[in-house]
Design goal:
CATH class: Alpha Beta
Strand content: 15-25%
Largest sheet: 7 strands, mixed
CATH topology: Rossmann fold
Radius of gyration: 17 Å
Number of helices: 8
């Protein structure tokens, strides 16, 4: 989190993490496409022959509350290839929240696991644990053959603490819901640590509703948050030490 007191602007960094070709870039492209005119900046994508994202995508979405605090969302992806480990570690640095994009196909289970362990290790390098980081998990590619069943994913979600979402990012299904879930967790954690709502008179519920509307989802935020199939959407508290 970066707070510019002069311009009264808060910048939140969100990172989409996961194995190669799981749909991280597709999620950002879908968000960019869904965003209302003027709500998003230029989406920058670097294509390679091995992975759709060589470094990161930067998607600045800026929203201003009814008071005088502007909130800018900077959304990044990381390259999933093993050879880009140092880049992933760099992009994760300073992240306020992370969306882990998993491939729903059973054949990709090992790659999902390896990427999740890689995330844990990269957070450790920055002095953080998974429990300290606002984190949601999205099982993408639900339209592909040989995917884990909804029941299996719901069972996995019931055993963990991270909110879990189902998605078909190529069609925009579950993309906005995943973002709103991540932003809810992230803002809750930042507010718990810095008391932002009280200090700036910020209405976080109205903010989430505004973000959802600008991303093309007019449903009430509680209804959007209920799209997760398991996990907890409660407030994370900073760990002692």
């Amino acid at each position: 989190m970066q707070l510019d007191f002069v311009n009264r602007e808060l910048t939140i960094k969100l990172v989409y993490y996961g194995p190669a070709l799981s749909g991280k870039t597709t999620n950002l492209q879908a968000l960019h496409k869904a965003a209302a005119p003027g709500a998003s900046g230029r989406l920058m994508t670097l294509e390679t022959k091995d992975d759709r994202t060589l470094f990161f995508d930067l998607l600045p979405l800026t929203f201003r509350n009814q008071g005088s605090l502007a909130v800018r969302l900077k959304v990044f992806t990381v390259p999933g290839q093993v050879i880009h480990a140092s880049t992933r570690r760099l992009v994760v640095q300073g992240a306020d929240g992370i969306a882990f994009i998993a491939d729903s196909r059973t054949a990709e289970t090992q790659h999902n696991t390896e990427s999740f362990m890689d995330l844990r290790e990269n957070l450790k390098q920055h002095g953080l644990t998974l429990r300290q980081m606002p984190l949601i998990i999205q099982f993408n590619k639900r339209d592909m053959p040989d995917v884990r069943s909804d029941a299996e994913i719901a069972d996995l979600a019931s055993k963990g603490r991270e909110p879990v979402y189902l998605a078909v990012a190529t069609r925009g299904v579950g993309v906005v819901e995943s973002m709103i879930g991540l932003l809810h967790l992230t803002w809750s954690a930042l507010d718990a640590e810095h008391d932002l709502n009280k200090k700036f008179g910020f209405d976080s519920k109205a903010f989430l509703a505004q973000v959802a509307q600008k991303l093309g989802n007019p449903k009430p935020v509680p209804e959007i948050l209920q799209a997760c199939v398991g996990g907890a959407l409660d407030v994370l508290r900073p760990e002692a030490g």
